[in-house]
Amino acid sequence: MEYPNGDLYTLEANLMNKSLRELTDGADKDPITKLRLLCFSRGATGILGIGRAFRAMDDDGSKALNEQEFISGIRDTGLDVTDDEIREMFNTFDEDGSGSINMTEFLLKLRPPMPECRVGIIDQAFDKMDRDDDGVITVADLKSVYSVKEHPKYQSGEMSEDEILTDFLHNFEGGRGNLDGKITREEFINYYATISASIDNDLYFDLMMRRAYAM
């Protein structure tokens, strides 16, 4: 299978531009929609970046955020919302009224909804990539799935196989955060959930995934 992701850069750029226009068009939007658009305007790893920023505030490792931590986190994103809107968001995410938000549930609600058929094809792609079934995708997994021989930077000698495959993994991790070269299923789904938001047709999304991962 050849190195993928040809169409994704165009889709991502279109989504970023469209989201930024919607975010700044002056129309009334609920605060969660604003936060989702902010994530989209930062590209396919925008939701992942928000998740990492919030996890960094989880000092006690509880994987939950209290109201003050949530307010600080939203303020750090630069989102243009009032304190009342932030509290409205917090109360929406805090469904059980416990005074804290589960990080996983927060990201699930922030992620754009996808039909089961799209989630299914994303899971299939992840399973194909995770060759040793350890729940993460690494360079070692990719070596048995991808051929980089057609990659122009490999052909020119500018990048090695490991460098190209590591660069591919970093697409899913964003430009900041712990670039550990390991992609979890959550990171993989969050990335494609954002790409999915720019594709209206389920069949086209399915085709794109099958073509990218030779399924």
UniProtKB/TrEMBL annotation:
One Pfam family named in its UniProt record: EF-hand_7
Domain EF-hand, first and last residues per copy: 45-80, 81-116, 117-152
Matching InterPro entries, A to Z? Ca-bind, EF-hand-dom_pair, EF_Hand_1_Ca_BS, EF_hand_dom
Q: Which UniProt keywords apply?
A: Calcium, Metal-binding, Repeat
Q: Which species is the source of this protein?
A: Drosophila madeirensis
Recorded GO terms, molecular function? calcium ion binding
Q: Which SMART domains match?
A: EFh
Q: What is this protein called?
A: Calcyphosin-like protein
Q: Which CDD domains match?
A: EFh
Q: Which domain of life is it from?
A: Eukaryota
Q: Which PANTHER family match?
A: CALCYPHOSIN, CALCYPHOSINE LIKE
